[in-house]
Amino acid sequence: MTTIEAPSFSPALFAFLRELKQHNDREWFAANKARYEQAVKEPALAFVEDFGHRLPAVAPQLVADKRSMFRIYRDTRFAKDKTPYKTHVGIYFRHARSAEADTAGMYLHLEPRHVFLGAGIWHPATPALKRIRDALVARPDEWREALAAVAPEWEQAEGERLKRPPAGYSADHPLIEDIKRKSFAIVSPLKQGDATASGFLDLCEARAERARAYMGFLSRALGVAY
Questions:
Q1: pLDDT tier, 78 (very low <50, low <70, confident <90, very high otherwise)
Q2: Is the peptide bond preceding residue 43 cis, with omega within 30 degrees of 0?
Q3: Model confidence at 1: pLDDT above 70
């Protein structure tokens, strides 16, 4: 008999986040802390653990642990928006060597009507950015193949670009628009219903497998395994 996988998340997670957006203050959160623990934090940590068992098959260099779930508390020290809580759930599977080098990772974003997977590296430091740009120049066909391999499930994230070509790179290079990127990431849009349906782990695993060519290119450019 086939066992049907239980959903990773329930509609209660998105209901909590919708209400939090309307009542983003410490008093409301304190009164609803038990809801947060039960509907949001516990399922998210369970997802991290469950997906961690699948990572060796599709992304063996990525790490899943308690640090994978971002804190819900916002850092408001230098922000104009002083609301204390994030109104989304963010889960990041970092590279095993992230503590010693700029590396690419994978991200899951859960927000009412806005669910997606992300993969890549966001605003890397200048040396890492140059390594990726140099890899595009040195291996343009491999870059194009990596982008083709992840489509159509994944597409390049827009992100910021330089207005002019970076110093040392030709303005007429066929990949100049990619070379001008400040981040190298791809996005895989999902539906809220995907996250609350059985089989969400299977879906995420399949998308992670699909992203391998892109993540592999970035990792080779950055000098780490993938």
A1: confident
A2: no
A3: no
Contacts of 39 (CB under 8 A, 6+ apart): 10, 12, 13, 15, 16
Q: Look up the pTM and report it.
A: 0.95
3-class DSSP state of 4: coil
pLDDT of residue 4: 67
Bridge partners of 91, per DSSP, are: 69, 108
Q: Which residue has the tokens 């998105």?
A: 14
Q: Is pLDDT at 18 greater than 60 in this prediction?
A: yes
**Distance from C-alpha of 109 to C-alpha of 127, rounded to nearest angstrom:** 28
CA distance 222 to 132: 7
The dotted CATH code for 11-222 is 3.30.930
Biggest alpha carbon distance in the chain?
A: 62
